[in-house]
Predict the 3D structure of the following.
Amino acid sequence: MTSETKVVLATEISESDIVRKKIKSKKTINQLIIDINTEESELYIADDERRHIHISKHPTQISCFKCMDGRVHIPSITGTPIGLVKPYRAIGGKFKVFWPALRKRFHTWVELGLDSGKRSLAFVTYHCSASNPHLGCAGWNYQTDQAKAHITNFCEKLSHVYGYALTAIPTRVETDGDIITLHNGDKEVSGANLIGLTSEKAHLQIAEVFPRMENELIEDILPFMMGNAVRVAYLRDNPRDLSGLDHHERVIALGQGFDWLARQNFALIINDIDPNLDFAIETAAKIVKGNLKSASKNDVATLFTNIPYRKPGMEQREAEVAARELQEFAQDVIKERHPDLWKSGKLMFLIGVTFEPSKKLTVLDQGVVGA
Ligand SMILES: [Zn+2]
Protein backbone atom coordinates (compact mmCIF):
# COMPACT_ATOMS: atom_id res chain seq x y z
CA MET A 1 0.00 0.00 0.00
CA THR A 2 2.82 2.38 0.86
CA SER A 3 4.44 2.46 -2.58
CA GLU A 4 1.04 2.79 -4.27
CA THR A 5 0.17 5.72 -2.01
CA LYS A 6 3.46 7.45 -2.82
CA VAL A 7 2.69 7.29 -6.55
CA VAL A 8 -0.69 8.93 -6.05
CA LEU A 9 0.77 11.68 -3.88
CA ALA A 10 3.50 12.43 -6.40
CA THR A 11 0.86 12.73 -9.13
CA GLU A 12 -1.24 15.06 -7.03
CA ILE A 13 1.68 17.33 -6.22
CA SER A 14 2.83 17.63 -9.82
CA GLU A 15 -0.74 18.41 -10.93
CA SER A 16 -0.98 21.24 -8.42
CA ASP A 17 2.18 22.64 -9.95
CA ILE A 18 0.62 22.34 -13.39
CA VAL A 19 -2.45 24.28 -12.16
CA ARG A 20 -0.25 27.09 -10.86
CA LYS A 21 1.67 27.27 -14.13
CA LYS A 22 -1.55 27.30 -16.15
CA ILE A 23 -2.96 30.15 -14.05
CA LYS A 24 0.23 32.09 -14.74
CA SER A 25 -0.01 31.34 -18.44
CA LYS A 26 -3.37 33.19 -18.49
CA LYS A 27 -5.22 30.23 -19.85
CA THR A 28 -8.90 31.11 -19.53
CA ILE A 29 -10.09 30.04 -16.13
CA ASN A 30 -13.11 28.15 -17.49
CA GLN A 31 -10.89 26.19 -19.87
CA LEU A 32 -8.62 25.39 -16.94
CA ILE A 33 -11.57 23.90 -15.03
CA ILE A 34 -12.60 21.90 -18.10
CA ASP A 35 -9.02 20.61 -18.52
CA ILE A 36 -8.77 19.67 -14.83
CA ASN A 37 -12.03 17.77 -15.22
CA THR A 38 -10.73 15.88 -18.26
CA GLU A 39 -7.60 14.83 -16.36
CA GLU A 40 -9.45 13.95 -13.16
CA SER A 41 -12.21 12.07 -14.95
CA GLU A 42 -9.57 9.89 -16.63
CA LEU A 43 -7.85 9.32 -13.27
CA TYR A 44 -11.18 8.49 -11.64
CA ILE A 45 -11.99 5.88 -14.28
CA ALA A 46 -8.45 4.47 -14.05
CA ASP A 47 -8.83 4.23 -10.25
CA ASP A 48 -12.02 2.19 -10.53
CA GLU A 49 -10.38 -1.13 -9.68
CA ARG A 50 -8.42 0.37 -6.77
CA ARG A 51 -11.67 1.80 -5.42
CA HIS A 52 -13.50 -1.52 -5.73
CA ILE A 53 -10.66 -3.37 -3.96
CA HIS A 54 -10.70 -0.81 -1.17
CA ILE A 55 -14.49 -1.00 -0.72
CA SER A 56 -14.45 -4.82 -0.69
CA LYS A 57 -11.87 -4.78 2.11
CA HIS A 58 -13.30 -1.78 3.97
CA PRO A 59 -17.10 -1.85 3.88
CA THR A 60 -17.81 1.14 6.18
CA GLN A 61 -19.16 4.01 4.08
CA ILE A 62 -17.43 7.27 4.82
CA SER A 63 -18.38 10.93 4.53
CA CYS A 64 -16.55 14.12 5.38
CA PHE A 65 -18.01 17.41 6.57
CA LYS A 66 -15.72 20.29 5.79
CA CYS A 67 -15.17 23.96 5.12
CA MET A 68 -15.48 25.44 1.62
CA ASP A 69 -11.69 25.84 1.71
CA GLY A 70 -10.18 23.71 -1.08
CA ARG A 71 -7.15 22.81 1.07
CA VAL A 72 -9.24 20.35 3.05
CA HIS A 73 -9.24 17.55 0.47
CA ILE A 74 -9.21 14.06 1.92
CA PRO A 75 -8.00 12.18 -1.22
CA SER A 76 -4.94 14.47 -1.53
CA ILE A 77 -3.93 14.33 2.10
CA THR A 78 -4.55 10.60 2.56
CA GLY A 79 -3.41 9.31 -0.85
CA THR A 80 -6.75 7.52 -1.32
CA PRO A 81 -8.69 7.51 -4.60
CA ILE A 82 -11.40 10.10 -5.23
CA GLY A 83 -14.89 8.71 -4.71
CA LEU A 84 -14.36 6.82 -1.43
CA VAL A 85 -15.48 9.70 0.78
CA LYS A 86 -18.74 11.57 0.30
CA PRO A 87 -18.00 15.27 0.87
CA TYR A 88 -20.28 17.92 2.37
CA ARG A 89 -19.05 21.49 2.25
CA ALA A 90 -20.16 24.76 3.85
CA ILE A 91 -18.45 27.98 4.96
CA GLY A 92 -16.33 27.14 8.01
CA GLY A 93 -18.00 23.73 8.18
CA LYS A 94 -20.77 25.45 10.18
CA PHE A 95 -23.31 22.70 9.51
CA LYS A 96 -26.52 22.38 11.47
CA VAL A 97 -28.65 19.27 11.74
CA PHE A 98 -31.82 21.23 10.90
CA TRP A 99 -30.66 22.26 7.41
CA PRO A 100 -33.48 20.66 5.38
CA ALA A 101 -31.43 19.65 2.30
CA LEU A 102 -28.58 18.28 4.44
CA ARG A 103 -31.00 16.35 6.63
CA LYS A 104 -32.59 14.71 3.62
CA ARG A 105 -29.35 13.90 1.80
CA PHE A 106 -27.40 12.70 4.80
CA HIS A 107 -30.30 10.69 6.22
CA THR A 108 -30.80 9.00 2.83
CA TRP A 109 -27.07 8.22 2.64
CA VAL A 110 -27.02 6.61 6.12
CA GLU A 111 -30.19 4.66 5.37
CA LEU A 112 -28.93 3.39 2.01
CA GLY A 113 -25.85 2.16 3.87
CA LEU A 114 -27.97 0.35 6.44
CA ASP A 115 -30.07 -1.23 3.68
CA SER A 116 -26.91 -2.78 2.23
CA GLY A 117 -25.61 -3.81 5.64
CA LYS A 118 -23.05 -1.02 5.94
CA ARG A 119 -22.31 1.23 8.87
CA SER A 120 -21.41 4.86 8.29
CA LEU A 121 -18.59 7.02 9.52
CA ALA A 122 -18.20 10.79 9.24
CA PHE A 123 -15.00 12.78 9.59
CA VAL A 124 -16.36 16.13 10.82
CA THR A 125 -13.52 18.53 10.20
CA TYR A 126 -12.26 21.97 11.10
CA HIS A 127 -9.01 23.35 9.79
CA CYS A 128 -6.12 25.46 11.04
CA SER A 129 -2.53 26.38 10.33
CA ALA A 130 0.33 25.76 12.75
CA SER A 131 2.52 28.53 11.34
CA ASN A 132 0.10 31.44 10.99
CA PRO A 133 -3.46 31.86 12.34
CA HIS A 134 -4.37 33.81 9.20
CA LEU A 135 -3.74 30.71 7.11
CA GLY A 136 -6.51 29.07 9.14
CA CYS A 137 -10.26 29.24 8.61
CA ALA A 138 -11.59 32.57 7.32
CA GLY A 139 -15.12 31.20 7.88
CA TRP A 140 -14.47 31.31 11.64
CA ASN A 141 -12.45 34.51 11.50
CA TYR A 142 -9.44 32.29 12.37
CA GLN A 143 -10.95 31.36 15.77
CA THR A 144 -9.91 27.70 15.78
CA ASP A 145 -11.31 27.00 19.27
CA GLN A 146 -14.77 28.11 18.15
CA ALA A 147 -14.54 25.96 15.03
CA LYS A 148 -13.54 22.94 17.11
CA ALA A 149 -16.34 23.54 19.63
CA HIS A 150 -18.89 23.76 16.81
CA ILE A 151 -17.88 20.56 15.07
CA THR A 152 -17.62 18.68 18.38
CA ASN A 153 -21.17 19.72 19.18
CA PHE A 154 -22.32 18.77 15.67
CA CYS A 155 -20.73 15.33 16.10
CA GLU A 156 -22.57 14.82 19.39
CA LYS A 157 -25.87 15.66 17.72
CA LEU A 158 -25.20 13.33 14.78
CA SER A 159 -24.30 10.54 17.21
CA HIS A 160 -27.50 11.18 19.15
CA VAL A 161 -29.61 11.08 15.97
CA TYR A 162 -28.06 8.09 14.22
CA GLY A 163 -26.84 5.99 17.15
CA TYR A 164 -25.17 2.74 16.14
CA ALA A 165 -25.59 3.46 12.41
CA LEU A 166 -23.07 6.32 12.41
CA THR A 167 -19.75 7.09 14.05
CA ALA A 168 -18.97 10.83 13.85
CA ILE A 169 -15.39 11.82 14.64
CA PRO A 170 -14.27 15.40 15.38
CA THR A 171 -11.28 15.85 13.08
CA ARG A 172 -8.64 18.56 12.77
CA VAL A 173 -6.86 19.23 9.49
CA GLU A 174 -3.65 21.24 9.92
CA THR A 175 -3.05 22.58 6.45
CA ASP A 176 0.67 23.51 6.59
CA GLY A 177 1.65 19.89 7.05
CA ASP A 178 -1.63 18.27 5.91
CA ILE A 179 -1.90 16.54 9.32
CA ILE A 180 -5.19 14.82 10.13
CA THR A 181 -5.92 14.49 13.86
CA LEU A 182 -8.85 12.48 15.24
CA HIS A 183 -10.23 13.65 18.60
CA ASN A 184 -11.97 11.72 21.32
CA GLY A 185 -12.46 14.13 24.23
CA ASP A 186 -8.98 14.97 25.51
CA LYS A 187 -7.35 12.14 23.60
CA GLU A 188 -6.20 12.37 20.00
CA VAL A 189 -4.26 10.51 17.34
CA SER A 190 -2.79 12.01 14.17
CA GLY A 191 -1.18 10.92 10.94
CA ALA A 192 2.05 12.38 12.35
CA ASN A 193 1.83 9.92 15.29
CA LEU A 194 1.64 6.99 12.89
CA ILE A 195 4.66 7.74 10.69
CA GLY A 196 6.75 4.61 10.21
CA LEU A 197 4.39 2.33 12.16
CA THR A 198 3.12 -1.02 10.91
CA SER A 199 -0.65 -1.29 10.38
CA GLU A 200 -0.90 -3.42 13.53
CA LYS A 201 0.83 -0.83 15.71
CA ALA A 202 -1.17 2.02 14.13
CA HIS A 203 -4.36 0.04 14.83
CA LEU A 204 -3.38 -0.21 18.50
CA GLN A 205 -2.68 3.54 18.71
CA ILE A 206 -6.10 4.37 17.27
CA ALA A 207 -7.75 1.82 19.60
CA GLU A 208 -6.08 3.50 22.58
CA VAL A 209 -7.76 6.80 21.68
CA PHE A 210 -11.08 5.14 20.77
CA PRO A 211 -11.33 2.26 23.27
CA ARG A 212 -15.02 1.61 22.50
CA MET A 213 -14.63 1.52 18.73
CA GLU A 214 -15.01 -1.90 17.08
CA ASN A 215 -11.95 -3.38 15.40
CA GLU A 216 -13.72 -3.48 12.02
CA LEU A 217 -14.29 0.27 12.15
CA ILE A 218 -10.67 0.95 13.10
CA GLU A 219 -9.55 -1.21 10.18
CA ASP A 220 -11.66 0.96 7.87
CA ILE A 221 -10.19 4.19 9.27
CA LEU A 222 -6.66 2.83 9.01
CA PRO A 223 -6.04 3.31 5.24
CA PHE A 224 -6.86 7.01 5.59
CA MET A 225 -4.65 7.50 8.62
CA MET A 226 -1.75 5.43 7.25
CA GLY A 227 -2.03 7.33 3.96
CA ASN A 228 -1.98 10.56 5.93
CA ALA A 229 1.18 9.42 7.78
CA VAL A 230 2.88 8.96 4.38
CA ARG A 231 1.71 12.42 3.27
CA VAL A 232 2.89 14.10 6.49
CA ALA A 233 6.28 12.38 6.25
CA TYR A 234 6.58 13.46 2.61
CA LEU A 235 5.87 17.12 3.47
CA ARG A 236 8.36 17.00 6.34
CA ASP A 237 11.03 15.89 3.89
CA ASN A 238 9.80 18.29 1.18
CA PRO A 239 8.35 21.32 3.00
CA ARG A 240 6.04 23.47 0.91
CA ASP A 241 6.50 27.20 0.52
CA LEU A 242 3.99 28.66 3.00
CA SER A 243 4.32 32.21 1.67
CA GLY A 244 1.75 31.63 -1.10
CA LEU A 245 -0.76 29.72 0.99
CA ASP A 246 -3.16 32.49 1.96
CA HIS A 247 -6.34 32.93 -0.07
CA HIS A 248 -5.75 33.09 -3.83
CA GLU A 249 -8.91 31.36 -4.96
CA ARG A 250 -10.34 32.39 -8.32
CA VAL A 251 -13.28 29.98 -8.51
CA ILE A 252 -16.58 30.04 -6.64
CA ALA A 253 -17.87 26.50 -7.09
CA LEU A 254 -21.52 26.19 -6.18
CA GLY A 255 -23.68 23.07 -6.21
CA GLN A 256 -22.46 19.51 -5.66
CA GLY A 257 -19.99 16.97 -6.96
CA PHE A 258 -16.75 18.98 -6.84
CA ASP A 259 -14.43 16.32 -5.39
CA TRP A 260 -12.46 16.35 -8.66
CA LEU A 261 -11.97 20.13 -8.51
CA ALA A 262 -10.31 20.62 -5.12
CA ARG A 263 -6.85 22.12 -5.58
CA GLN A 264 -4.67 24.14 -3.31
CA ASN A 265 -5.87 27.73 -3.32
CA PHE A 266 -7.98 27.33 -6.43
CA ALA A 267 -11.68 27.06 -5.59
CA LEU A 268 -14.08 27.98 -2.81
CA ILE A 269 -16.59 25.16 -2.78
CA ILE A 270 -20.13 25.64 -1.46
CA ASN A 271 -22.72 22.88 -1.48
CA ASP A 272 -26.33 23.88 -2.07
CA ILE A 273 -27.36 22.36 1.27
CA ASP A 274 -26.83 25.59 3.18
CA PRO A 275 -30.18 27.31 3.84
CA ASN A 276 -28.26 30.61 4.02
CA LEU A 277 -26.94 30.07 0.53
CA ASP A 278 -27.12 33.78 -0.31
CA PHE A 279 -24.81 34.59 2.60
CA ALA A 280 -22.38 31.83 1.56
CA ILE A 281 -22.28 33.22 -1.99
CA GLU A 282 -21.86 36.77 -0.71
CA THR A 283 -18.94 35.69 1.50
CA ALA A 284 -17.23 33.71 -1.27
CA ALA A 285 -17.66 36.65 -3.66
CA LYS A 286 -16.08 38.94 -1.09
CA ILE A 287 -13.04 36.65 -0.75
CA VAL A 288 -12.65 36.32 -4.53
CA LYS A 289 -13.03 40.09 -4.99
CA GLY A 290 -10.23 40.63 -2.47
CA ASN A 291 -8.08 38.06 -4.25
CA LEU A 292 -8.56 39.85 -7.57
CA LYS A 293 -7.48 43.15 -6.03
CA SER A 294 -4.11 41.69 -5.07
CA ALA A 295 -3.72 39.88 -8.42
CA SER A 296 -2.29 41.13 -11.68
CA LYS A 297 -4.71 43.23 -13.72
CA ASN A 298 -5.44 40.57 -16.34
CA ASP A 299 -6.54 38.00 -13.77
CA VAL A 300 -10.16 36.87 -13.79
CA ALA A 301 -12.37 34.73 -11.57
CA THR A 302 -15.32 32.50 -12.33
CA LEU A 303 -18.64 31.46 -10.86
CA PHE A 304 -19.05 27.76 -11.58
CA THR A 305 -22.30 25.93 -10.91
CA ASN A 306 -22.42 22.17 -11.25
CA ILE A 307 -24.89 19.43 -10.37
CA PRO A 308 -24.06 15.72 -10.69
CA TYR A 309 -26.42 13.05 -12.04
CA ARG A 310 -26.31 9.26 -12.27
CA LYS A 311 -29.01 8.46 -14.82
CA PRO A 312 -29.80 10.00 -18.20
CA GLY A 313 -33.36 11.24 -18.66
CA MET A 314 -35.27 12.77 -15.79
CA GLU A 315 -32.32 12.97 -13.39
CA GLN A 316 -30.05 14.52 -16.01
CA ARG A 317 -32.66 17.06 -17.04
CA GLU A 318 -33.26 17.99 -13.41
CA ALA A 319 -29.50 18.46 -12.89
CA GLU A 320 -29.29 20.70 -15.97
CA VAL A 321 -32.18 22.93 -14.89
CA ALA A 322 -30.85 23.08 -11.32
CA ALA A 323 -27.32 24.05 -12.46
CA ARG A 324 -28.73 26.88 -14.60
CA GLU A 325 -31.08 28.14 -11.87
CA LEU A 326 -28.34 28.00 -9.26
CA GLN A 327 -26.19 30.16 -11.56
CA GLU A 328 -29.01 32.70 -11.95
CA PHE A 329 -29.55 32.75 -8.19
CA ALA A 330 -25.85 33.28 -7.46
CA GLN A 331 -25.51 36.02 -10.08
CA ASP A 332 -28.53 37.83 -8.60
CA VAL A 333 -26.91 37.70 -5.14
CA ILE A 334 -23.58 39.02 -6.46
CA LYS A 335 -25.30 41.73 -8.53
CA GLU A 336 -27.08 42.97 -5.42
CA ARG A 337 -24.32 42.65 -2.81
CA HIS A 338 -21.11 43.03 -4.81
CA PRO A 339 -22.24 45.11 -7.82
CA ASP A 340 -18.65 46.24 -8.47
CA LEU A 341 -17.55 42.63 -8.98
CA TRP A 342 -20.67 41.81 -11.02
CA LYS A 343 -20.03 44.54 -13.59
CA SER A 344 -16.21 44.43 -13.48
CA GLY A 345 -15.92 42.18 -16.54
CA LYS A 346 -13.52 40.08 -14.44
CA LEU A 347 -16.08 37.52 -13.30
CA MET A 348 -16.73 34.72 -15.77
CA PHE A 349 -19.41 32.06 -15.39
CA LEU A 350 -19.53 28.37 -16.18
CA ILE A 351 -22.57 26.09 -15.93
CA GLY A 352 -22.23 22.34 -16.08
CA VAL A 353 -23.48 18.91 -15.06
CA THR A 354 -21.27 15.98 -14.11
CA PHE A 355 -22.00 12.35 -14.94
CA GLU A 356 -21.19 10.71 -11.60
CA PRO A 357 -20.02 7.29 -12.85
CA SER A 358 -17.19 8.96 -14.79
CA LYS A 359 -17.06 12.43 -13.15
CA LYS A 360 -17.16 13.81 -16.70
CA LEU A 361 -18.31 17.41 -16.94
CA THR A 362 -20.67 18.58 -19.68
CA VAL A 363 -20.61 22.35 -20.15
CA LEU A 364 -24.08 23.86 -20.62
CA ASP A 365 -23.06 27.49 -20.95
CA GLN A 366 -20.23 29.89 -20.18
CA GLY A 367 -19.35 33.54 -20.62
CA VAL A 368 -18.81 36.80 -18.73
CA VAL A 369 -21.08 37.79 -15.84
CA GLY A 370 -22.96 41.03 -16.39
CA ALA A 371 -22.14 41.19 -20.12
ZN1 LIG B 1 -12.30 27.31 6.46
